[in-house]
What does this fold into?
Amino acid sequence: MSTDKEKTLHSRILGDIEQRILTGEWQPGFRLPFEIDLAAQYGCSRMTANKVLTQLARAGLIERRKKSGSFVAQPVAQSAVLEIHDIETEVRSLNLPYRYQIEARTRRKATREDRAQLELLEGGPVLDVSAIHFAGNRPFCLEHRLINLVTVPEAETETFEMLSPGAWLISRVPWNAAEHRIQAMSATPDISAKLEMARGAACLVIERRTWGPEGPVTFVRFSYPGERHALVARFQPGG
It folds into this structure.
């Protein structure tokens, strides 16, 4: 039977390791101390250390490899294909701290490519925004977005300092139709550098268009490291 001291040590060790993983201090692939080392560090039994590591493995935070030790697991995010939500939701689902930074923000007259991506019948002003989203200390996703300033004129003066472009649009602009396009591609030098991945490695790219009552609202392209992202869709047979 576990003593009160063992239970207290179990909670302390568990909390310490969880904090190091969730804050990014221990990155994916980091090898944790062995059971015998944890036991010596905290003055507990190897059984208590083993129970902590087993609980962390069940929670998906670490991987236990026979003869090799325990390693911080590589988080895999899931995007719901048929839903529209903010990137922050995906990151929070991994129990990781979230932040983003705006890389570029340009207002211009729509080019031919802009019109094709937004499905505009004629030219008009658009806002071109690029951002990087982070999960812990690692880049999680690269966002490139066009916003139609004809249907969303208030975006022209928005700095996106408080809310990311996607979160801002979800909270401010109603939409009544959306289209997703999903593809795999090799990372370009720019994507590789910004997402800290090998040049030419596989990326998962999700493109989305949305429309509102007044016409096209936005076109966005999300680029994810392929090995760290998955897609999920739930649906029912049509009636």
Observations:
- The first strand starts at residue 62 and ends at 65.
- The chain has two domains: 4-72, 77-232.
- The beta strands are 62-65, 69-72, 77-80, 98-109, 125-135, 138-148, 177-186, 202-212, 215-225, 229-232.
